[in-house]
Amino acid sequence: VPDGSARAALRIVLSYDGTDFHGSQRQSGRRTVQGELERVLSHLAGTEIPATLAGRTDEGVHAAGQVASVTDIRPAWDEIRYLEALNALLPVDCGVARVERVAPDFHARYDATWREYRFRIWNGSSEPLARRQTWQRRGAIDRSLMDEAARRLVGTHDFASFAGGGEGVPWSQRHATKRGTTRTVLMSSVRPLSPWWADRRDGQLIEVRIVADGFLPRMVRTIAGVLVEIGQRRRDADWIDTLLAGRDRRLAGETAPPQGLTLWRVGYAGDLPDDGAGEHE
Amino acid sequence: VPDGSARAALRIVLSYDGTDFHGSQRQSGRRTVQGELERVLSHLAGTEIPATLAGRTDEGVHAAGQVASVTDIRPAWDEIRYLEALNALLPVDCGVARVERVAPDFHARYDATWREYRFRIWNGSSEPLARRQTWQRRGAIDRSLMDEAARRLVGTHDFASFAGGGEGVPWSQRHATKRGTTRTVLMSSVRPLSPWWADRRDGQLIEVRIVADGFLPRMVRTIAGVLVEIGQRRRDADWIDTLLAGRDRRLAGETAPPQGLTLWRVGYAGDLPDDGAGEHE
């Protein structure tokens, strides 16, 4: 017999197709991931339930493993029941992969120790079946040059040159937090992936994987743009070092578009990032 | 210097996301693949250019390797120029992977010796990032039972039990061609595929692959529905034999929805179907 007064704290692992969301964060009058999730949670609880998301994703960016936390919700259903109820009520472009009961003080954002993003580039002729999940670039790209450059990002650096967005806000206020624009990249590499939509041998699917303790706005998309320029031999791999030293966004090039980007996974104490060896290859 | 009077016959390999098309075949006033292709070809030629498609795909069905033939088009550009012009003018959900100059009597449909379709089933909890390309089914599915059943389809059989569509047309008129409802399945199997949208280990992506000399309307989708019922242990694998012998569509179950289906490849004289060993696995 369920105890009507029992309450639960939940960790919810979410995936979504970012195409039709105005980003992850609640905005009044716009369709967002947080907005949809809170609407459904509030409906189940019969009262307003706020949720916190681990990572902020821009309009058009997808998630395979976004994490939401809810600190105090009634009823205290078990995980499977919440999973099923949420999936029954959420729209088709947002789904729950896992629900876990957690301690009431769990915080999806503050407790995260790392986040992994993946960015996918289709280097070949037009691919309609992959357009919502890849950045499509024609013309030769040397993947090993991209990988060499990507690996130079590993370590603790000031990533100011890779921080986009926030236009109109004075620079000094945009990153006015304790750590400023310094982040620690734990892993950064570029790998081939098998195209899933066709047996295409006349092109290559390239995946950029980056794991860090945190990311600045548009950081992965700026990195993806820089790596592609290096792969196209318009710049050398040591351009990365110049950008890290320069600490000025105007030094970097084009920001890659959002549809290639997926928030892949969020790590908490005890979670190790996957090195991905052998996957999809 | 190009000769303005020279004409070309073309084989065009097309891919498309079927979500927003009313199927492949031209229909007045509706957005179809043939309609879009002919519009663009006619624009390039300055005169009406009909195109023939190798395979008829229903509303919502995708193609990775649909083939179109054009028997007589001017200018006689080279393949790359046509590829680029077509991709520049076609909508984003339809793209050209290859253009080849062929003999003027080449016919995409009549000259095809086999066609390959693939149908993808995500067996796990809700997956928004794969909803446009998979049929999502919860509950245990035994993939090896599906594979055992799929292999029973290989050979020349009367597939009347697997022919859907054409409601309202008397049965006798629907398949009133020389070969009626008999087709030869060259290959039929069920394999695991790595999910491309996330590291999901709490579900399985199942791919049905079928190569045949031809397909009846909704044949692959009816087969996919039957195979899933067998994988769910609601029927035995020898149900396939009963259906083949019964030759009545009412014997089979649910038709799987279109979004899981892709026309993968079309073979012509000399082309061998790929056995796919090791791919994506």
Brief rundown of the structure:
Two copies of one chain form a homodimer. Chain A is built from six helices and ten strands, in the order E-H-E-E-H-E-E-E-H-E-H-E-E-H-H-E.
Description:
The structure is a homodimer of 281-residue chains. In chain A, strands 1, 2, 3, 4, 5, 6, 7, 8, 9 and 10 form a ten-stranded mixed sheet that branches. The radius of gyration of chain A is 20 Å and the shape is globular. Chain A has helices spanning 33-45, 79-89, 143-151, 171-174, 219-231, 239-246, and strands spanning 8-16, 52-53, 62-73, 94-101, 114-123, 135-136, 155-158, 182-193, 204-212, 261-267. In chain A, 44% of the residues are buried. Chain A has six helices and ten strands. The first copy, chain A, has 281 residues and is an alpha+beta fold. Residues 167-171 of chain A have low confidence and may be disordered. In chain A, a hairpin with an 8-residue loop joins strand 2 and strand 3 (62-73). In chain A, helix 3 packs across helix 5. The A-B interface holds A 15-17, 62, 64-65, 83, 87, 90, 92-98, 125-129, 131-133, 193-194, 196-200, 202, 262, 264-265, 274, 279-280 and B 15-17, 62, 64-65, 83, 87, 90, 92-98, 125-129, 131-133, 193-194, 196-200, 202, 262, 264-265, 274, 279-280.
Topology:
The structure is a homodimer of 281-residue chains.
Chain A: E1 8-16, H1 33-45, E2 52-53, E3 62-73, H2 79-89, E4 94-101, E5 114-123, E6 135-136, H3 143-151, E7 155-158, H4 171-174, E8 182-193, E9 204-212, H5 219-231, H6 239-246, E10 261-267
Parallel strand pairs in A: 3-10, 5-6
Antiparallel strand pairs in A: 1-3, 1-4, 2-3, 5-9, 5-10, 7-8, 8-9
Helix pairs in contact in A: 3-5
